[in-house]
Structure formats: C-alpha cells, structure tokens
Amino acid sequence: MSNIIQIIMAGVMCFAVLILLWQAKGRLLKKAWHCGDEKKISVVVAVNGSAPQLESTVSTLLWMRRNGDLPARILLVDDGMDLDTAFAARLLADSREGVYLCNPDQLEFFILRSGNYDGHNY
After folding, report:
1. Which domain holds residue 6?
2. Together in a domain, 8 and 63
3. How many CB atoms lie within 10 A of CB 56?
4. Which of helix, strand or coil describes residue 106?
5. 76 - beta bridge partners?
6. Are residues 49 and 106 in the same domain?
7. CB-CB contact of 43 with 72 (8 Å)
8. pTM of the predicted model as reported, rounded to 2 decimal places
9. Strand, coil or helix: 43
10. Which of 43, 46, 85, 88 is the most exposed place for a label (fewest CB within 10 A)?
C-alpha cells in the first residue's frame, strides 16, 4: 500500500514541476513581447478563398491579445477572398478593436503609415 502512495506522490510532484516550468516559460515569453513602447507588432493574416477558419483565427488572436500574450494589431489581407469571406472580414474589422482589413497593395503603406494604433480600418 505504501508503494502505491509513493507512486501517486511522485506523479503529483512531477505534475507540479511541469506546471511550474510551463508558468516560467509563459512569463519569459511575455517579457520578450514587452521590450518597449516604441515597437509596434502586427500580425498579418493573408486570407484567400472561402477561409472557413477566419473568425476562429481572429478570435484566437484576440484572446491572446486580451491575455497580454500578443500585444499586436491584426491585419487581414485580402489575398483573393470570395464575397462571403470578404463580407465576414469587413464585419470583423469593423466590430473588433485592433483588427484591420487591407489589400496586398495597401499592406506596406498601412504598416509604415500607421505605426500607431489610431483605431481606423484601412
């Protein structure tokens, strides 16, 4: 009986160490993102075709931003979206703060011109 208890305790201790390592990794990654206010990060999502996972992708990126894991704006680039996807992308850009919609020709201009988060969709 005592061997079973020792095995269970060893498993619990291993699990606790794994959790502590996971937490440490998360904290180190957060520190890397917050390296200064002068740096602006943009996540570029090139969207083409029907893109059935577009809303899920944007929701995941927004969740990461809310948690502080990804302090970035989200740029949805129209790389040949169909009409329904373009409509959904426009709705996402209009309804979610920090989500922007542009075409490939505007991408460089958008990144260079809007280094600040001015709340406009281009």
Report:
1. 1-33
2. no
3. 10
4. helix
5. 45, 101
6. yes
7. yes
8. 0.64
9. strand
10. 46
Q: Are residues 26 and 41 in the same domain?
A: no
* Dist CA 67 CA 86 (whole Å): 28
Residues 25, 76 within the same domain: no
43 shares its domain with 95: yes
**Alpha helices (H) in the chain, listed in sequence order:** 2-33, 54-66, 83-95, 104-113
Q: Are residues 62 and 16 in the same domain?
A: no
Residues 7 and 29 in one domain: yes
Rounded CA gap, 106 and 44, in Å?
12
Amino acid at 117: Y
Amino acid found at 56: S
Q: What is the pLDDT of residue 117?
A: 46
> In this predicted model, what pLDDT tens digit does every residue of 4-58 receive, in sequence order?
889 999 999 999 999 999 888 777 766 555 555 545 778 899 999 988 899 999 9
